[in-house]
From TrEMBL:
The keyword Ligase does not apply. GO terms for cellular component: nucleus. The keyword Glycoprotein does not apply. Signal peptide: none annotated. The lineage of its organism: Eukaryota, Viridiplantae, Streptophyta, Embryophyta, Tracheophyta. This is Protein FAR1-RELATED SEQUENCE. It comes from Opuntia streptacantha (Prickly pear cactus). Residues 700-718 have a biased composition (Basic and acidic residues). InterPro entries: FAR1_DNA_bnd_dom (IPR004330), FHY3/FAR1 (IPR031052), MULE_transposase_dom (IPR018289), Znf_PMZ (IPR006564), Znf_SWIM (IPR007527). Belongs to the FHY3/FAR1 family. Keywords: Metal-binding, Nucleus, Zinc, Zinc-finger.
Length: 785
């Protein structure tokens, strides 16, 4: 076999080595408490993305070491030999090493069977230990070993390998008892932490682990290791508690508005802690409409019992509303935490709250926040899918993409239900228990069921910056409680600086406008930079949509809004002209607080030139943190949209219809109505003169009203002269014809515009195809050369 370079995945054990007592020499010289050890086949541990990965050719999973074999590093060679030892049935340790005389770096290392050599019974320390506690003889002079040496290339090559042992090897079901293979994995640590916090002892915890992993050999360590880990864990907890309380006491003395509470158990053991500083409490008064309770750090990956409350500011950035350390995760503990947090936020609950998919948290929220819309984080469920359906993902590479499309793309409940059933049938997953579980909770995480509630999200299909954890980049899987406070302060300073920078950019530079729309100019002076950019995308997007009137009951007009030729993907907008309120079937405004392109397309065709004030949420404006309702431009926006000809016309028409119905009910009401109209027309004519506009037309109308008002009821019954009736009918007909022509011309313009965009899109697609072909030709020529 030719020499191969093996990139073997390794991680140094955490906690497991400290928990194991043996007289063997340590294999791992430096151990990080929070790293997860990689165990050989059957160990069930996870690997770290930061380490090299093992590559073994197909059919060579039982590969033996041989002289000349190469490794990327010394650690990779050690991990490979330990993995080989687990398969064969013996334990390993480091025997000797050689260092360079130039720089002192290790250039050669030997790994041996743990039974290599003999115990030195003449050594004083050995004699003293034997007197106190006699131990079994474990070293029998075994010669099995692996020696590696570094090359000039930087790779490590096997220079010696002895396979034969002078003792019996351990069966596979007993390998977990060998020292070099006894390591506590990250998931096992998390389970031990949780059960220890609940008051269980080592024996009961081991029983739970055996049941969880399907046998003692799959657990990977013994009950003694578990006891040692729990003892060390208790020591670390006591130290961390003191540090946490000291930190909170210091902050409380420096800030009178600092809020802190501790929940002490009945036995006065370790309790939960919550705190919120003055900035967090103030931010909640401005942006407390939607909250995320982040329990990511209590997952298997992170071992901190840390849970922050976060929200979204006017720049779409995450902000902090308080933090907790949860050492007890019972339903009662969560109830205490939510009630305590609510008290710190002046008793005002949010509109919505987002949490991880957890039955205990859900029960507590139903009790403390019965009227708050509760949502499970969709992105956490997507991540859980990779774990729960890993076997499906291996067999069907496209399942995950189809799963995301099924959740994100449907525009109606019926469409989602149909898509879900189709997905289950396509991959034969109707009996999958986890999919049944999340389907039963679909109303709390599938977007189509949540669009009627406010969550301050800019996109349903893409995860925004605000959804990322507030502490991303600061707290990670290796963060201990003692390190936490310094990183916590750094995260706060960084987030505050980013908000200051966004405020500065918004107030000291004007965004580029892309259309001549007065609405775009108006909101550019109101929204923050980030939110304006998002609104601008929707405004520009209206150019590709057509809005067609499909129903008009005199008060509410219904429009069908769709791209040209895509009526099957239409959205429906109901527009109340009198109240200047519109609702869209996509419900983007209800979900994010920004108007969608469909409503804006309707505003365009109805001549609504500026954005009505009730569609400008203060929480998205540059004045979100001030006591000013809106800038002066907001007042101009109200007068602006009232100046719309369509609004004036429809408002007058609606009021006139009601006036006519009531005025024609009797002779007396008719006379009163006519008198009121005459008086109104006098005021209108006077207003026209003040505006400097001619009043000939209005004078004609006044004379016509006077003539009609002077007629008696009998004269009205006679119907008047035939010439007058003919003249009025002719004018009405002409008006209808001109209106139809105008509407037809408008439709043609929309078609021409849609066709133009279609042509431009085709040109762009053709351009991309040509570029791809050109790139392909270049690669072909390069390969030929």
């Amino acid at each position: 076999m030719d020499n191969q370079v093996l990139n073997f995945s390794i991680e140094l054990g955490g906690g497991g080595s400290a928990a194991i007592s043996d007289d063997a020499i340590e294999i791992d010289h430096s151990i990080d408490e929070d790293e997860t050890p990689v165990m050989a086949a059957g160990g069930g541990a996870s690997t770290s993305s930061a380490t090299p990965t093992l590559y073994i050719p197909d059919g060579e999973l039982d590969l033996e070491p041989y002289e000349g074999m190469e490794f990327e590093s010394e650690e990779a060679a050690k991990a490979f030999y330990n993995s080989y030892a687990r398969r064969v049935g013996f334990s390993t340790r480091v025997s000797s090493s050689r260092r360079s005389r130039k720089d002192g770096a290790i250039i050669q290392r030997s790994f041996v069977c743990a039974k290599q050599g003999f115990r030195n019974l003449n050594e004083k320390r050995t004699k003293e230990r034997e007197i106190k506690r006699p131990r079994m003889i474990t070293r029998v002079g075994c010669k099995a070993m692996l020696s590696v040496k570094i090359q000039e290339s930087g790779k490590w090559v096997v220079t010696g390998f002895v396979k034969k042992h002078n003792h019996e090897l351990v069966p596979l079901d007993q390998v977990h008892c060998l020292r070099s293979h006894r390591q506590i994995s990250g998931p096992a640590k998390t389970l031990i932490d949780t059960l220890q916090a609940a008051g269980l002892g080592a024996r009961k915890i081991m029983s739970a682990l055996v049941k969880e992993y399907g046998g003692i050999s799959n657990v990977g360590f013994t009950e003694v290791d578990c006891r040692n880990y729990m003892r060390l864990n208790k020591q670390r907890n006591m130290e961390g508690d003191l540090q946490l309380l000291d930190y909170l006491k210091q902050i409380s003395s420096e800030s009178p508005d600092f809020f802190c509470a501790v929940q002490v158990d009945d036995d006065h053991s370790r309790g939960n802690v919550f705190w919120a500083d003055a900035r967090a409490r103030t931010n909640y008064t401005y942006f407390g409409d939607t909250v995320t309770f982040d329990t990511t750090f209590r997952s298997n990956k992170y071992r901190l019992p840390f849970a922050p409350f976060t929200g979204v500011n006017h720049h779409g950035q995450p902000i902090l509303f308080g933090c907790a350390f949860l050492f007890n995760e019972s339903e009662g503990s969560f109830e205490w935490l939510f009630n305590t947090w609510l008290a710190a936020m002046s008793g005002k609950p949010p509109v919505s709250i987002t949490t991880d998919h957890d039955a205990t948290i859900r029960s507590a929220i139903m009790k403390v926040f019965p009227d708050v819309r509760h949502r499970f984080c969709k992105w956490h469920i997507f991540k859980k899918c990779q774990e729960k359906l890993s076997h499906v993902l291996l067999q069907h590479p496209y399942f995950e993409a189809d799963f995301h499309k099924c959740v994100n793309l449907p525009e109606s409940v019926d469409e989602f239900e149909s898509c879900w059933l189709s997905l289950l049938d396509r991959y034969n997953l109707r009996d999958n228990e986890w999919l049944q579980l999340i389907y039963s909770a679909r109303r709390q995480w599938v977007p189509v069921y949540l669009r009627d509630a406010f969550f301050a999200e800019m996109s349903i299909t893409q995860r925004s910056d605000s959804m990322n954890s507030y502490f991303d980049g600061y707290i990670n899987a290796s963060t201990s409680l003692s390190q936490f406070f310094k990183l916590y302060e750094k995260a706060l300073d960084s987030r505050n600086e980013k908000e200051v920078k966004a405020d500065y950019d918004t107030m000291n530079s004007a965004p580029a406008l892309t259309t001549p729309s007065p609405m775009e100019k108006q909101v550019s002076q109101l929204y923050t930079r980030k939110i304006f950019t998002r609104f601008q995308e929707e405004l520009v997007g209206t150019l590709t949509f057509m809005a067609t009137k499909v129903e008009d009951n005199g008060e509410v007009i219904t429009f069908q809004v769709s791209k040209y030729g895509e009526d099957h993907k239409a959205f429906y907008v109901r527009f109340n002209v009198l109240e200047m309120k519109a609702t869209c079937s996509c419900q983007m405004f209800e979900f994010s607080g920004l108007l969608c392109r469909h409503v804006l397309a309707v505003f365009r065709v109805t001549n609504v030139l500026t954005l009505p004030s009730h569609y400008i949420l203060k929480r998205w404006t540059r004045n979100a943190k001030s006591n000013v309702v809106l800038d002066d431009q907001c007042g101009s926006s109200v007068s602006g949209y009232l100046e719309s000809l369509t609004v004036r016309y429809n408002t007058l028409r609606h009021e006139a219809f009601k006036f006519v119905d009531e005025g024609a009910s009797s002779a007396d009401t008719y006379d009163a109505a006519m008198a009121a109209l005459q008086e109104a027309m006098k005021k209108v004519a006077l207003a026209l003169k003040k505006d400097g506009r001619g009043s000939i037309t209005n004078g004609h109308i006044k004379d016509s009203i006077k003539d009609r008002g002077s007629r008696s009821k009998a004269h009205c019954d006679d119907g008047g002269s035939s010439n007058e009736q003919l003249s009025e009918d002719y004018m009405d007909q002409k008006i209808r014809e001109l209106s139809e022509e105008l509407e037809s011309a408008h439709r043609k313009c929309e078609v021409y515009r849609a066709n133009l965009f279609s042509v431009l899109k085709d040109i762009d697609n053709h351009k991309q195809q040509l570029a791809a072909k050109l790139h392909s030709v270049k690669l072909s020529l390069k390969d030929a050369i």
